[in-house]
């Protein structure tokens, strides 16, 4: 079966969302796994930064999952439009609010998480 070229934009968006999901969950998992080896019990400031870093990555994961659901729903709408003989670009696209707003929040919170992770590492090095 030939693939509709209209689906490629959704595949690229889905892959980007999945990459940020993978990176976010990996960073959370690795930092939680090694937290006991890194933190000094008296160092409170790095713990605050690391906690906010985790929170930022968790928000990124949450909105990434919502974005994947939105992409799936829009692909289904496109399939229904094609069956009905309607041009899918007249109905919906990647700029739809239900996709774009969630992807933006995911990307912003991911970048914020990276910045907070860098700050966490710097404060941890200064406290040791």
How does the SSE layout of this entry go?
Layout: H1 6-33, H2 35-38, H3 44-84, H4 88-91, H5 97-127
Helix pairs in contact: 1-3, 3-5
Please state the structural category: mainly alpha
Instruction: Identify the overall geometry.
Output: rod-shaped
Rg, please? 19 Å
Number of separate domains: 1
Task: Specify the number of helices.
Answer: 5
Low-confidence region ranges: none
The total strand number stands at 0
Global mean pLDDT: 83
Sequence of secondary-structure elements? HHHHH
Distance between the termini: 60 Å
- Can you summarize the main beta sheet? none
Helix content: over 70%
Report strand %: under 5%
Structural notes for this entry:
The chain is mostly helical and 128 residues long. The protein has five helices and no strands. It has helices at 6-33, 35-38, 44-84, 88-91, 97-127. Helix 1 (6-33) runs antiparallel to helix 3 (44-84). It is rod-shaped, with a radius of gyration of 19 Å.
